[in-house]
Design brief:
The structure is a single chain. This protein is mainly beta and about 375 residues long. It has 2 domains: about 60 residues, no CATH class; about 300 residues, 5 Propeller (Tachylectin-2, Chain A), CATH 2.115.10. About 5% of the residues lie in helices and about 45% in strands. It has 3 helices and 24 strands. The protein has a 4-stranded antiparallel β-sheet with strand order 2-1-3-24, with no helix packed on it. The chain has a 4-stranded antiparallel β-sheet with strand order 4-5-6-7, with no helix packed on it. Strands 8-9-10-11 form a 4-stranded antiparallel β-sheet.
Amino acid sequence: MTLVKNQVRIIFMGSLLLMMAGCASEVTSMEISTTNSEEVTSTDMSTTISIAEESSEVSATLRTSTYTNPIYEYDFPDPSIVFDERTNQYFAFATHGQILSSPDFVTWTKQNYAFTTIPQWGTTNAGLWAPHVMRIGEQYVMYYSLSTWGDSNPGIGVARAPRPNGPWVDQGELFRSLDIGVNNSIDPGVFIAETGKVFMVWGSMRGNYIVELTSDGLSLKDGSATTAATTKIHVAGLDTNTDWNVGTYEGSYVQFHDGYYYLFLSSGTCCEGNTSSYHVVVARSEFATGPYVDRNGHSMKAANVGTPILERNDSFAGPGHNAIFQDMAGDTWMLYHGYMTSNPARGRVLLVDKINWGDDGWPSIHGGTPSTTPLQGPAYWQLP
């Protein structure tokens, strides 16, 4: 079932066929007028459209398709997501450098892996975990963890590409744990603050920290990891010199909304099938670098705090390691992984649910657990 939420005429300088093929130049003229399609809803659109040289006119319809969790029934842990205007598709990324694409959040196509060979600058036999991808300027940037289980010196690297499906070119390491002074330096989450500054938040069960990156997102603002070690900011969990604690956090993700920066964190055990205790909590701050507090005013620089937003149910165990994104209608969604309790051998499958913002500004997911019934999914533009 597809629900038409809004319909628009888009008049732009360019060729639709070339736009869909990904030929890029800068938009010079764009006009949008809404027409009724049962019930018109107000939608703010702020996007760049890739164009060619000749003027053309197309109609696009804002739609939502019906989804049921899981949206991808195979192992796809630690997901992140971007929307690519040139191909009018969502692209999801996961551990091992997996890439999926979808025009409607229901039909997913497996793309080539981001790398044919895992980068080799880290610990011997390290795997590529938890890639976080975002668009910065005219390029896509991937931040990835390079680690093994029990790694004493994992690190975070960076790659870039002209499009989400590549080709991805590795830029090497940003830092390793021993250099920057954060044990278990994995799970990068990068965001652009309202000031325009680019920040990374990272860490796993040994403290979560924030550093500033350069404006292109490819380097540490302070230059070297040893210098950044003195300027990094502790924002969640216990001090990094404290032993691993399952009551602390990993999978950090920061989303700005209505005057606050919201810090989403996963806590508990991630990878034990139906006995996984993974869940997601949230805190917020008026400032990108904190201090972050939960709904009860508790500082996040502790264990077993944070406002719960997502926990297990009878159908899905260990939901967590989320990404947050806005769809084409401006609604907020959480993409995350979890185990199907009916078939945990499938691994951590891909799930999605809508985030609702309360009158007090705090986010929630209906029922506080993964949805199990058919629902209307994220909005997307359907082009002719």
